[in-house]
Amino acid sequence: AGFTVAIVGRPNVGKSTLFNRLLEQRKAIVDDVSGVTRDRQYGVADWNGKSFNVIDTGGFVHGSDDVFEREIRKQVKIAMDEANVLLFMCDAATGITDLDDNMAEILRRSSKPVLLVVNKVDNNNRMLEATEFYSLGFERVFFMSSMSGSGSGELLDAVVELI
Ligand code: GDP
Ligand code: MG
């Protein structure tokens, strides 16, 4: 029971880094290797006296593009079923990829609120480049660095407002 937030996005965008930051304990495995988080991770986070469940999705298989895409669709579908809010994480360091476009298409059809989280906005240059993510067509867009934590306050304010 309770309010649940799921972090979805293609591998290596920083989902587990944010998850760990939200939980302030290392429950997920963060690694440089794409898709190292084998299964979904569940945790509880607090912000401004409100607590909520967080799901870190992962466990993407390596295989053909078809298999990969199918797996991502599955993960997003599970997250859509289990969560009240979806955090769709993208990576400002790489810019918009085909997989981002693909996931955006699925997520735009979600009946649940979707917050687009543009991660790895570590400096002002990245911020300028990151504005391209507005083109994905989401109303609520947040720019942050999971690594430093900058921007996470605005995101969390928006999350708990939906509780
Ligand atoms: P996941 O596959 O989406 O769960 O991504 P991870 O959380 O495992 O992170 C993938 C890589 O991106 C790791 O090397 C992280 O240290 C790095 N990373 C995560 N957040 C940031 C960030 O805000 N800035 C930068 N520069 N790197 C980040
Ligand atoms: Mg991960």
From TrEMBL:
The EngA-type G domain, residue ranges: 3-163
Residues binding GTP 1, per UniProt: 9-16, 56-60, 119-122
Known role: GTPase that plays an essential role in the late steps of ribosome biogenesis.
Family: Belongs to the TRAFAC class TrmE-Era-EngA-EngB-Septin-like GTPase superfamily. EngA (Der) GTPase family.
Description of how the protein assembles with itself and partners: Associates with the 50S ribosomal subunit.
Protein name according to UniProt: GTPase Der
Annotated gene: der
